UniProtKB/TrEMBL annotation:
Belongs to the class-I pyridoxal-phosphate-dependent aminotransferase family. InterPro entries: Aminotransferase_I/II_large, AspAT/PAT-like, PyrdxlP-dep_Trfase, PyrdxlP-dep_Trfase_major. This is Aminotransferase class I/classII large domain-containing protein. The keyword Transferase applies. Residues 2-99 form the Aminotransferase class I/classII large domain. It comes from Spumella elongata.
Length: 99
C-alpha cells in the first residue's frame, strides 16, 4: 500500500461513518508471493498506531514466498494494535481437514 496516502486518509477521516478502524494486509501477497520489506511493515505499523487503527497482517502464505526477505511478518511488527493471522491448514496443505 501507499503509506503516505494511507496516513493522509487516516488523518482526514476521524469522525462519522468514514472512520477507518482497521487496515489489513496479506503478506506475502496471494497470488504473486511478493512480500513487503520489514521496513515497509514497520512504517505501516507506526502509522496505524499513531492514528489508533488496528493493523491485521495476514501471514497465511508466508511459507509460499520465494523472495529472500528472511523475515516472517510476525517477527517485524507487533504491538497492542497489531493482529497477526496464520493458517495452519494452508501452510501444511490440509485445506480439507477439520478438527
Amino acid at each position: 500500500p501507499d503509506i503516505d496516502w494511507l496516513e493522509t486518509r487516516l488523518a482526514t477521516t476521524k469522525s462519522g461513518d468514514a472512520h477507518i478502524k482497521m487496515v489489513t494486509v496479506v503478506n506475502p501477497c496471494n497470488p504473486t508471493g511478493v512480500a513487503m520489506p520489514a521496513e515497509h511493515l514497520q512504517r505501516l505499523s507506526a502509522v496505524c498506531s499513531k492514528h489508533g487503527v488496528w493493523l491485521a497482517v495476514d501471514n497465511t502464505y508466508e511459507n509460499f514466498s520465494y523472495e529472500d526477505e528472511g523475515h516472517p511478518a510476525h517477527t517485524c511488527v507487533s504491538g497492542d494494535h497489531v493482529v497477526n493471522v496464520f493458517s495452519f491448514s494452508k501452510a501444511y496443505g490440509m485445506m480439507g481437514w477439520r478438527v
